[in-house]
Predict the structure.
Amino acid sequence: MTAYASDVAALTRKDLLLELRSRDTLPSLLLFVVSALVVFHFALPASSSRLAAGGLLWVAIVFTALLALGRAFVAERAERVLDGLVLAPCDRSAIWLAKGISVAVFLAVAEAIAVPAFALFFAPVTWAMIGAIALADVGIAAVGTLLAAMAAASRARELLLPLLFLPPVIPLVVGGVGATVAEDPGRYLAFLALYDLLFAILSWASFEYVVTE
Amino acid sequence: MTAAEKYVLAAYLVVLGAVLLYVVLYSFKLARLEREVAELTALAERRNAQLREPELRQKEPVI
Amino acid sequence: MARPLITARELEKRFGDKRVLRGIDLDLAEGQTLVVTGPNGSGKSTLLSLLAGLLAPTAGELEVRASRAEIGYLAHEPLVYRELTAFENLDLYGRLYRVPERRERIGMLFERFRLWDARHERVGSFSRGMAQRLALCRTLLHEPRLLLLDEPYGGLDAAGTSLLDAELAELATERTLVVATHEPERLAAATPSVKLAL
Amino acid sequence: MSTWLRNSRGASLSLAAFGLLVAGVALAVFWVPNDADQGFSQRIFYLHVPVALTSYACFGWAAWKALRLLQTRDQRYDLESYTAVHMGVIFGALTLATGSIWAKISWGRWWVWSERQLVLFLILFLFYSAYFMLRYSTEPGPRRANMSAVYALFGVALIPVSFLAIRLAESFIHPVVFNRHGPQMAGSMFLTFCVCLAGTLALAAALYQNELTGKRLDARLRALREALA
């Protein structure tokens, strides 16, 4: 186990180092999520309820995630470095786990700005919402990283990723919005946890087939 | 025919129409396949003709 | 005679409709050197990718009796991150390949390939020749048993070429080499024991 | 007679489909009594639900072939999984069409979000349409086969999860919960339903078999063209 953990650590360190060095993904995510919320403010008619605002936060999160996932494998594609990583003796799922962790970290930082902004612009934030956002991040990172690897191997990457990503993310949005607006968010948080568990295992097991022949 | 009956009929026709459309599309595919096979047989014949070319030339000077 | 390191029978590789490799038969024993020659686009890189395990054969059998930790693959691209420094790249690969005394090994390679003073510079700022030398360091980092070198002389200047000549001469004695090149006469150092023209 | 049947599976399946469908429609339209509360319009039930179940069966079959591909790396399964997904999407579209007609009859509007099955098929239809986008934008080869297989397996896992999500969504989107016709049907209704289901399944199998043969013919012709070139 420690060998696997050290591989994941090395790869995650590399991803975070890449971001520190090029500093292009994180700043754009932060600006994007806040400007999305501002746009939503104008999109909402004056009389709309707290429910609508809660829903829009999740739309902002999904599209911020799309932005982050679109950048996920750009560095690996540039110099065919993915082949170098696939050649290494480590388990290929370590590449998926490390990339997933870095995507989740970027998303968490973006949400660390978005949630207070949401509280400021729209409505107070409950603990259930924060729990739902954390759980949704895990699901988005797990499924999103796998789909980003698929899109990275195809021609129309920027077009393909949203098509692949949006249908599977619908249950996450339902769970998230449910936890945000419903009186007893417990059911929705449990559903999010179930989704994370199921699709994290599925993505972990199938990543190897996406990057090799 | 009540409105309901018209709609039920419409539903059955939709499914029948889809199947027929599928068959039509499939016939286009078969036609394309047939053209391709014809093309390839012509290609094959031309190749055979080229292979038999040498014997034909030998025969001519004998006449 | 020990079983050959690489065995290939009727090996074929196809990309969609285009067939790139066909009917390749190959036996390469431990310590031998195979030189693969042929014009551009003849499938040399594809063959090396197959040997490295990056591609799966479309037909035929291929057996490479070396684990991924024992294979070094020098591709056309350097397979290193442009945004990271030379040292950070090798450090990453060193960890993934679990190279013992990683830092010393990396330092020694940087000196041997004269990259010591550029070791903390971004690879993006490297010239083609420097990137090729870094890729050679990456390939030799974990002292692989089987070396797959695709156009190793690509982009190297005179100094780099003579440096690689010395390196190949030494490697050919103790390791198994597969070198793909479209100009075999330049391979003075490594006397090929097996030749394959595509 | 039996050899003819055995070696042309496509034809024999088509024959079975024809027989079963004719019987099914005849039973559904003429023989079975009207439903107590929904009256004649309930007869669309014998078409809409079998088509939906057939679509599920196709997606399940595609996932099974995808799993076989990942285990054996035999590219033959890629073609079969691809054709099965194609069948699934065709029947999925038909489910949406007949479902919206049913919605028009029952609730007067072409689309209702309260009908869970319908919403689930909308999500699946979007998901599996992206499957074709994935295939069309990657180079043919083992890599594409692997990715398509993983995606097909994902789809099957998504079905129960999405259905659960839709049920959960109902309580805060619009709590109109509708009790639709349950399986407690009278004997004659259940018999008609089974015949119709067998008919649609046979139809899917026949189309699947024919399309598969067509695709294999394509591949063989390409190989022949290359051999002659």
Observations:
- Residues 43-211 of chain D form one domain.
- The mean pLDDT of chain D is 85.
- The interface with chain B takes residues 25, 29, 39-41, 43-44, 47-48, 51, 90, 93-94, 97-98, 101-102, 104-105, 203, 207, 210-211, 214, 217-218, 221, 224-225, 228-229 of chain D (CB under 8 Å).
- Chain D has one domain: 43-211.
